[in-house]
Specification:
The chain is α/β, with parallel strands linked by helices. It is 41% helix and 17% strand. Pfam families: FMN_red.
Length: 210
């Protein structure tokens, strides 16, 4: 197959950001897993904090500024997606939600996605299952079974209770993502380009249905 492209989306707000650290680790694990399968990958990381104003403008105007539109196009054309969000109030960040709110709802249909999250306590890990996974299921993406959560104590240490540590979980999730990239679920469905009808035509249809 041609070199697959992986887009990594980090919704971290700080610099440095634990969400970006986890995103980088997951991307590195995916590249390693692809290498073990005899393939390479093109990886692009998107920091949503750099697009915050563009996302807000899109929400209120309905039009994507050029930088955001370019990111949306690259994401829709990717072969796989890695998404990492910090936990806020028991859910994913509003910035991440806003970004996917202004994305074409069909853009992720059939796309392999690996989910990750970071938080200040291991107690928030279920956010991945009760909040983030349903979002991407709604968008009809193919989410890998293993989601990866990182609390402060996970960095540079094992779990301490016999469960897989952060590095092991990252590798397992990456292998699941690579299995999808390499075609385990078949090709993504082709999408016909959407063309907006002229305003006059839309208005005529509304008036004709009265």
């Amino acid at each position: 197959m041609s070199t697959p492209s992986i887009v990594v989306v980090s919704a971290g707000l700080g610099v440095p950001s634990s969400s970006r650290m986890l995103a980088d680790q997951l991307a590195e694990s995916a590249v390693e897993a692809l290498g073990a399968a005899g393939a390479t990958a093109e990886v692009e990381t998107i920091e949503l904090r750099e697009l915050a104003l563009d996302i807000a403008n899109h929400l209120v105007t309905g039009f994507a500024p050029p930088a955001l539109a370019a990111v949306q196009e690259r994401l829709a054309a990717a072969d796989a997606l890695i998404v990492v969000s910090p936990v806020f109030s028991g859910s994913y960040s509003g910035l991440l939600k806003s970004f996917f709110d202004v994305l074409d709802p069909k853009a992720l249909e059939g796309m392999p996605v690996l989910l990750g999250a970071t938080g200040g306590s291991a107690r928030h890990s279920l956010m991945l299952e009760h909040a983030l996974r349903p979002l991407f299921s709604y968008l009809r993406a193919v989410v890998v079974p293993t989601a990866v959560y990182a609390a402060p104590q996970d960095w540079g240490a094992g779990s301490g209770d016999g469960a897989p540590g952060l590095e092991q979980r990252s590798r397992r999730a990456a292998k699941e993502l690579v299995a999808l990239i390499l075609g385990s679920v078949g090709p993504r469905p082709a999408r016909a380009p959407e063309v907006s009808a002229p305003f006059e035509e839309l208005l005529a249809k509304i008036q004709g249905n009265r």
